[in-house]
Amino acid sequence: MARRNPFDDIEEFFDRLNSQFEGQGGFDQEAFGMGGTSRMSIDLADRDGEFVVTADAPGFGKEEIDVRVTGRRLTIEAERTESSEDESETYLRSERRSESLHRTVQLPEPVEEEDVSATYKNGVLTITLPKQDPETGGKSIEIE
Q1: What is the pLDDT of residue 86?
Q2: 51 Cβ partners below 8 Å, 6+ apart?
Q3: Is pTM beyond 0.70 here?
Q4: How far apart are CA 128 and CA 111, in angstroms?
Q5: H or E element in which residue 75 lies
Q6: Where are the domains of the chain?
Q7: How many CB atoms lie within 10 A of CB 63?
Q8: Any residues with CB less than 8 A from the CB of 54 and at least 6 apart, and which?
Q9: What residues does the CS domain cover (predicted)?
Q10: H or E element that contains 16
Q11: Distance between CA 61 and CA 120 in Å, rounded?
Q12: What is the greatest pairwise CA distance in the chain?
């Protein structure tokens, strides 16, 4: 039996807390010094021999997105920083904006990590995760 990750409970707690504030205009994380991290919207589809995850990440470049698969956990992170400067004779104005998205998904079944692929087009990230064949999955242990 697999052990449950205690950090999943913490993440679930913050997701519920955030959803409670959504009806009241949202929880302004930046006002509390928590940065501009937002939860990424995803779809997880089970298509025969693979899972397909579709995630919205508008405005990011593909080099700003990191996708990782570890065991049965898929993690997607996107981060970007923008800055602009406006100079005139009497003042200098410099504005910076940082935005990040993060999402971790527990997959229902093991996947072939080496065969995972991802595409990014028009702000939509599509990740294809081939399921691990139950007959060949895992590692065979030789008995001495």
Answers
A1: 61
A2: 44, 45, 107, 108, 109, 111, 128, 129, 131
A3: no
A4: 10
A5: strand 73-87
A6: 31-130
A7: 8
A8: 42, 43, 45, 124, 125, 126, 127
A9: 37-142
A10: helix 6-22
A11: 9
A12: 81
45 touches 55 (CB < 8 A):
no
**CB atoms inside a 10 Å sphere around CB 128:** 15
Helix (H, G, I), strand (E, B) or coil at 31: helix
> What mean pLDDT do residues 84-104 have?
71
Distance CA 112, CA 72 (A): 10
CATH class of 31-130: mainly beta
Q: Any idea which residue has 């997959």 for tokens?
A: 107
Q: Which range among 27-31, 34-38, 63-67, 105-109 shows the weakest confidence by mean pLDDT?
A: 27-31
R_g of the chain, CA atoms, integer Å: 20
**Which token pair is 67?**
């996708």
CA 54 – CA 33 distance, rounded (Å): 30
For the CA atoms of 135, 141, 143, 144, the dihedral, rounded to the nearest 10 degrees, stands at 150
Token digits of residue 46: 């089970």
Give the tokens for residue 99. 């935005």
